[in-house]
Amino acid sequence: MSKKKTFNARPFAYHEEIEVGVTALTNLGVGLGRVAIGGPGAAPDWVVMVAFALPGERVRARVFRNHSNYSEADLLEVLSPSPQRTVPRCPLFGRCGGCQYQNLAYGEQLAWKRRQVAELLLHMAGLSVDVAPVIGSPRLFGYRSKITPHFNPPRGAGPPAIGFLRQGSRSEVVDVPRCEIATEAVNARLAQARGEILRAAADGTLAGGATLLLREAAGAVTMRHDERIVEEVPLGPSETLRLGFLAGDFFQNNPFILPAFARYVRDQARGSGARFLVDAYCGSGLFALACARAFERAVGVEVSESAVAFARQNAAANGIANASFIAGDASAVFSGLGFAGADAAVVIDPPRRGCDRAFLGQLFDFRPRAVVYVSCDPATQIRDLGGFLEAGYAVRAVQPFDLFPQTRHLECVVTLGLG
């Protein structure tokens, strides 16, 4: 490969090979090390990021980008492997961008995810608080009930790659005949879908690229975004929620850890002593309905009218009469509730980007006695904690859940209370 015209050649030349001692993993799942660039005797102070390199390893890497204060490099060879290094189950690991940690023992994955949450709390919010050990998934592979493989428009005579983005690329797709973190039912349907697409490509009837949806519920897999499906969530020995929603709507994708996850949120909200519950960003009603029987009344709000319709149907189907749902912007949820914040606990589960200022302002004006903040991105969650601290809230508990084994992704539940 020729040198890029816009490449910044300081401190390393394009594709220069270097040795790096890896000391940590970033919250993006990338190995971090430092090298000396100031000549003989200089301290190793220049940061180099190497994907798929593990803490404790010495590796040979090839630089492909220099930033103002760090470089990025591809892993070429592990010179001194970590004792925690494992053999990846998937032959595409390292090329497919879906997984980052298949080469790392699962206990160590959990330890690093816990450490990363603690570091984000300290560096972003100035909080030195105890982070509970990460609650691991009952299944380490074959747990994902939804995947969205894609393929690009046909180019040339060859068949299209059908799968996921290549590691480090925004457009190149790696062909994925089987996804090791997806359920067996999803993989069986993926094989069928691939056959249909490849036959269309071969006979010239494949019009363009597409993103597929494959979602399993109750043992069946659908590819239709508008199909109603039902997920069962056991909350106790004699309590199981049956939740209907559209296959294309948001819903957690690891059904094997979901019961423990929902129970924890319920117990944190109930432990506040509040009489009422508000579930902002409620979707089809998971948390509101999981918590409702522990409160006098539960109210959910959601911007998607179709999701609210399902939440209402789910309340009726589960015999829950003290839960109501409002279709509207979450920033307006606290008006007209009929009870005061001092008597309420609020569950929030916002999109990955976190909460906007309008919502947080109204939340702080409502002043609930407790907030249970659920997030799929601890970085935006912890960014938002600054506003809670200024409003007089304190962190009561931090509990990460590993809904996504073998990947860098993590769900985190932060419980906050006044004073």
What does this molecule look like?
This protein is α+β, with helices and mostly antiparallel strands and 419 residues long. The chain contains seven helices and 21 strands. It folds into three domains: 17-85, Beta Barrel (OB fold (Dihydrolipoamide Acetyltransferase, E2P)), CATH 2.40.50.140; 109-140 and 252-418, 3-Layer(aba) Sandwich (Rossmann fold), CATH 3.40.50; 146-222, no CATH class. The strands form six sheets. A seven-stranded mixed sheet has the order 17-16-15-18-19-21-20, with helices on both faces. A hairpin with a 2-residue loop joins strand 11 (214-217) and strand 12 (220-222). Helix 1 packs parallel to helix 7 (378-390). The model has no long low-confidence stretch (mean pLDDT 94).
Task: Summarize the helices and strands and which ones pair or pack.
Blueprint: E1 17-25, E2 30-35, E3 46-51, E4 58-66, E5 70-80, H1 106-125, E6 146-147, E7 150-151, E8 163-165, E9 173-175, H2 184-202, E10 210-211, E11 214-217, E12 220-222, E13 228-236, E14 239-246, H3 258-270, E15 276-280, H4 286-291, E16 297-302, H5 305-317, E17 323-327, E18 344-348, H6 357-366, E19 370-375, H7 378-390, E20 393-401, E21 411-418
Parallel strand pairs: 3-5, 15-16, 15-18, 16-17, 18-19
Antiparallel strand pairs: 1-2, 1-4, 2-3, 4-5, 6-11, 7-10, 8-9, 11-12, 13-14, 19-21, 20-21
Helix pairs in contact: 1-7
